[in-house]
Write a structure and sequence with these properties.
Its cofactor is FMN. InterPro entries: Aldolase_TIM, OxRdtase_FMN_N, Oye-like. This is NADH:flavin oxidoreductase/NADH oxidase N-terminal domain-containing protein. The chain is 28% helix and 15% strand. By secondary structure, the chain is α/β, with parallel strands linked by helices. It has a single domain, classed as TIM Barrel, CATH 3.20.20.70. It is globular and about 55 Å long. It binds flavin mononucleotide. The site of flavin mononucleotide has 8 residues, from loops.
Length: 181
């Protein structure tokens, strides 16, 4: 029988995947107070398979990094309470043999809209006709402020270590956020 590449196993680094179908990170905007809720247990475990990769929705590093108005109710990973709230979600995925990565992010130009968001640029997000929120002009980070933002990722990574998630993936926009500065 002809083998289907998508369903064949592969190995990347220390990870062995039984197939190549991946749950892409999908922001759900249901983590009220930046805490994963119990319905996330069902959501992620339903999508977990033995040896399959799931990437969790974008998860905030410490608090001023959240997309408050434009992307509300995203989970975070900077307090012990958040770690505790993630635990049953991770356990449920692991119970089904799933490999669970967490995507950590800083919402940059769309973070903390009430105040002045920080970014690698002072250009606001361009509005298109579907948008209902005006994005403020962000404050361009000074070079000496960058280590503080990097430190937010370190704090989140330490929290994830406590959680023993299987992997860690940082959000691509954050990478450009740093490299443009
Ligand atoms: C509702 C929604 C939420 C999303 N949330 C995230 C997210 O949290 N992190 C991310 O990197 N991409 C996010 N994406 C992008 C999806 O992961 C992306 O659409 C998916 O990988 C498919 O790629 P494509 O849109 O280029 O076909 C989101 C997309 C949608 C539609």
């Amino acid at each position: 029988m002809e083998s289907i590449a998508l369903l064949s196993p592969c190995e990347i680094g220390r990870f062995r995947f039984s197939h190549r179908i991946v749950l892409a990170p999908l922001t759900r905007s249901r983590s009220y107070g930046n805490l994963p809720q119990s319905h996330a247990i069902l959501y992620y475990s339903q999508r977990a398979t033995e040896g399959g990769l799931l990437i969790a929705e974008a998860t905030g590093v410490p608090s001023d990094a959240q997309g408050m108005s434009l992307i509300p109710h995203t989970p975070g990973i900077w307090t012990k309470e958040q770690v505790e709230a993630w635990k049953p979600v991770v356990d449920a995925v692991h119970a089904k043999g799933g490999i669970f990565f967490c995507q950590i992010w800083h919402a940059g130009r769309v973070s903390d809209m009430e105040k002045e968001p920080i970014s690698s640029t002072d250009k606001p997000v361009e509005k298109n006709e579907d948008d209902h929120v005006d994005c403020p002009i962000p404050r361009c980070l000074a070079v000496e402020e960058i280590p503080n933002v990097v430190n937010h990722f370190r704090v989140a990574a330490e929290m994830l270590w406590m959680l023993v998630l299987t992997g860690l993936k940082s959000m691509v926009p954050m990478v450009s956020f740093l490299s443009n500065s």
